[in-house]
């Protein structure tokens, strides 16, 4: 690798989103098991996912600022430690408490705080390591996003397999994965020294405000696409997990494998897209338009196919393909077009937007699944078409 970035450094960076994805998505296929073991309803079980995401949303902007001011690694390591502790709290409470639900939520909130200072900080770290080399940065970001999506592929299988042993084992597994990533980060990521003078908080906020005044026309659209793609993805995963078990009697590892199919398509699409975009903004805009068009057309069908598992998997896999094209493209657009001193904050705000989608997807779909799923999926298609129009109007690389 050029720019003195070792293979182990890349592996270490890629381990962070992998762990954070496993820490959240691994629980989706076993939410029905939590409902049974904890005597809770589907909305309450969705809070196990949502509490993690809301906590991350609240802390991400602060973590981004701290990483810009004090360094990426100094924020990532304590964040991974928080994720580890949160998993232990949730796991031990599940073993020892007669009413563990609130303790599990507390552990998930701590993990969300950890997620805020870990995965979002990887994006500006890549930008720091590959300064002035958009092609290498795009390729590395593709690997990072592929690791993220590969975690989504593994998570339903790993989560279901671990829950077969004991239902609360996945909480402890998150702690183990976090410890491994922490060790990798500590030993293998060498952050370049930054001798540039640091702005005061007021100066920093003024710079960020200036960025949004100057670049907001496309940044707001990118943030919206990030939130929308995660809303669709996690809504679909929650929905599939629920109907496969409750409607089709498909449980355990078999259900995990089925859930992994659209996620595998998403993972491969992320890998290929990251290698192809090479900092080309015109090509990136084309990917955004095609992907959003595909999601807008296909997502309404999800609400009408609960009895047809194979057709539903085909549709959701095509949606996974589109989301896989979107994610590394959005990462590259932000990381490569924001100055280093504000990069951590802007990429963190983008990550917060994605977490909004993660947080909203499961509870929204649990509400709509009762009697208005078709309406919800049609609305999701209309929302996608609206965002597509915003891309046409506000993201114009040739004009910048």
From TrEMBL:
GO terms for molecular function: transmembrane transporter activity. Its main location: membrane. Keywords: Cell membrane, Membrane, Transmembrane, Transmembrane helix, Transport. It holds the Pfam family MFS_1. Residues 9-399 form the Major facilitator superfamily (MFS) profile domain. It comes from the Bacteria. The keyword Zinc-finger does not apply. It is a multi-pass membrane protein. The chain crosses the membrane at residues 7-34, 46-67, 79-106, 157-189, 218-240, 256-274, 286-305, 311-330, 351-369, 375-395. One of its GO terms (cellular component) is plasma membrane. Gene3D superfamilies: MFS general substrate transporter like domains. It is found in: Cell membrane. This is ACDE family multidrug resistance protein. It comes from Aquisalibacillus elongatus.
